[in-house]
Amino acid sequence: MRVSYENFGWxxxxxxxxxxxxxxxxxxxxxxxxxxxxxxxxxxxxxLSPCDLTFLCQWIADKLxxxxxxxxxxxxxxxxxxxxxxxxxxxxxELKLLPELEARVLECHDNFEFRVRIAAGQLMGxxxxxxxxxxxxxxxxxxxxxxxxxxxxxxxxxxxxTESSLRELIIAKVSIWCLRLS
Length: 182
Description:
- The chain is mostly helical.
- It has one domain.
- Helix content is 73%, strand content 2%.
- The protein has helices at 21-28, 33-45, 50-66, 70-86, 89-95, 97-109, 114-131, 133-150, 161-181; strands spanning 3-4, 18-19.
- The protein has a two-stranded antiparallel sheet.
- Helix 1 (21-28) runs antiparallel to helix 2 (33-45) and helix 3 (50-66) runs parallel beside helix 6.
- The longest helix is centred in the C-terminal third of the chain and has 21 residues, at 161-181.
- InterPro entries: ARM-type_fold.
C-alpha cells in the first residue's frame, strides 16, 4: 500500500511523492508492545531514501514536540534512535536532527511513563556514542537525578536500607566513572 504525503498535510515534500513508512510509523506508536516491536523491526529493515529521512525527521519532531500520549512519544524516540544508529555523520549533520533531539530528549527523560524514560535514556546513550564526552556531560545531571529519584519503588514509603545502599553505590560508581573521563 502506498500512501501519499499530501493526504497527511505534510507540505515538506513535492506533490505526488509517496511513502510506505506510515504503516510502520503507526506501529511504532501502537498501544500493544508486540506491534511497537514489529514497527521497530520494520523500520530497521527499511532502506530509507533521502526523502524518507527528511519526512522521518519531521515526523519525529512532531511526535516529540506535542508530548501528547506516551505511545507517540515512545514511537518518536524509537525512530530517532534507529536513525542515529543507521545514518552517517555527514547525513546526520545534513538532517539537523541532533539539535532538535537535544532540546527534547531531556523533557522525555522526565516523563511520567517509565517506557518513555527508558526510550529517552537509550536515545541519550546513542547520542553520546555519536558525539562523545561533551554530549555525555550535557546529559549527566539529568541521568544522576533520574537514578536518585527512580530507584525508590514508592516515593511515599521510606527507602529500605538495601535500596539506599544500592542508590549510593550506583551514584558512587557513576561519579568515579565521570572523574576518570574528565
